[in-house]
Amino acid sequence: MIDIVNEIDAVEREVGSGRIPAGEGRAVILRRTYEAPIDEVWDALTNPDRIGRWFLPISGDYRIGGHYQFEGNAGGEILECARPNRLRATWAYGPGEPSEVEVRLASAGDDKTVFELEHTAVVPDEMWDQYGPGAVGVGWDLTLLGLAWHLESGGTIGSKQGMAWLGTPEGKDFVRRTSDDWGRASIDSGTDATAARAAAERTRAAYTGDVTAPEA
After folding, report:
1. Phi, psi values for residue 209, rounded to 5°
2. Which of the four pLDDT bands, split at 50, 70 and 90, describes residue 215?
3. What is the pLDDT of residues 55-74, one digit of tens each?
4. Cα torsion through 6, 11, 15, 21, rounded to 10
5. Minimum mean pLDDT among 9-13, 107-111, 178-182: which range?
6. Computed over its alpha carbons, how large is the radius of gyration of the chain?
7. Who's near 81: CB < 8 A, 6+ residues apart?
8. What is the DSSP string of 122-134?
9. Which of 88-92, 103-107, 108-112, 172-176 has the lowest average pLDDT?
């Protein structure tokens, strides 16, 4: 059984910035160490059959310049692929210019891998003020949790099962804790503390369906 609190605490969260073709963007960065060899983590991230076991079914043309599509979710173009250390792709969900996601891996011994994910997007100020980095960050926290479970157990978790878990007390507590952590990361990046905490609470409410969260 995976320890949810330990998994939350294993992730370092950072808010930054970066330039992508769409312009100067805001970045969320997640960093943690997995108890698995780098080749194993790379395979879990890039093998289409395995991706569908811990994230979502994927289809596409898996080469640099090729396009991919997650079922019912984002798609994009593969920009870089340097096995087993670096993967970069555009990330498009809905209308508007695509954002970019980059994953970096580094070996930390025979059975450990340092994993870093950076997602950079041009976000309207009003959207950022309302939800802050957690709007994207919490989703990636859930993704990293799924990957941790898969690497530990070798099992499969379907999207319906994952959504059902989000509605449980444990799932809601996960969202609350990670939303709070993104609020703290936002404060560390220079955001006013009161505004950052309010945005984190709105993010928590959006993920859990709690309509009692404050509007301001």
Report:
1. 80, 20
2. very low
3. 999 999 999 999 999 999 99
4. -140
5. 107-111
6. 17
7. 46, 63, 64, 87, 88
8. ---HHHHHHHTTH
9. 108-112
Residue 50 CB contacts under 8 Å (≥ 6 apart), including other chains = 43, 44, 150
The CA distance from 135 to 160, in Å, is 21
At residue 216, the pLDDT reads 37
Other CB atoms within a 10 A radius of the CB of residue 44 amount to 19
CA–CA separation, 132 vs 119, rounded Å?
Answer: 14
The H or E element that residue 153 is part of is helix 134-153
- How far, in Å, CA of 193 to CA of 147, rounded? 31
Give, in order, the Cα–Cα distances in Å from 200 to each of 87, 166, 193, 212.
29, 17, 10, 14
Average pLDDT, the chain: 94
Q: Quote the CA–CA distance of 212 and 216 in Å, as a whole number.
A: 12
pLDDT of residue 1: 64
- 10-26 average pLDDT score: 97
Indicate if the alpha-carbon torsion angle 100, 163, 58, 13 is positive or negative.
Answer: positive
